[in-house]
Amino acid sequence: MSAGVVVGILVGLWVLFRVVGRQITGSLVTQRSLMVMPAILLIIGLLPLPAALGTASTGEIAFLVLDCVVLVGLGLSRGASLHLTRREDGLYQKGTGATLALWIVTLGIRVGAAFAAPAIWPHGTLNHATLALTIGLTIAAQNAMIYRRALSMHIPLAVERA
Question: Which residues contact 140 (CB under 8 A, 6 or more apart)?
Fold first, then answer.
C-alpha cells in the first residue's frame, strides 16, 4: 500500500469517527454540520475521478457505481434512523441502535470494497481514487435525509455559535 492510500484511509477513518461519534453521543444539527464535511469530501473525491476513469475498465466503473448506490442507500437509511428532536437551540440529532448498526454495515461494505476491487483489478486505480468520494456520498445522503426530515417536522436547524 502506498503512503497516499494509508493517509487517505486514516483521514477517512478520522472523518467517520468524528461523524459517528457526534451522532451516537448526540449533537445539534447546523447548516455547517450538514454541508461542510460532505462538500469537502465530494470535492476531494471528484478531483482525481477524470484521470482514474480514463484508465478504468468497464467492470471497475460498474463496481464503483454499485458501491455508490449501496452507500447512498445506507446513508439515507442512517438519516432515517436518527432520533431528531427540537431543542431550544434548534435541531438535535441522536443516533439509535439502528444508526450504529447501519454505520457498521457501511464500514464493512466500504472496507470490503477497498479489498475486493484491487483483488479483482490489481492494476486498477479507481477504487483508491474514489475513497473520499464514496465516503462523501454516504454522508451527504444521510445529511439530505436529516434535512428533509427536519423540514417535514418543522424543526429549524441549530444556529452557529459565534
Answer: 38, 39, 41, 42, 75
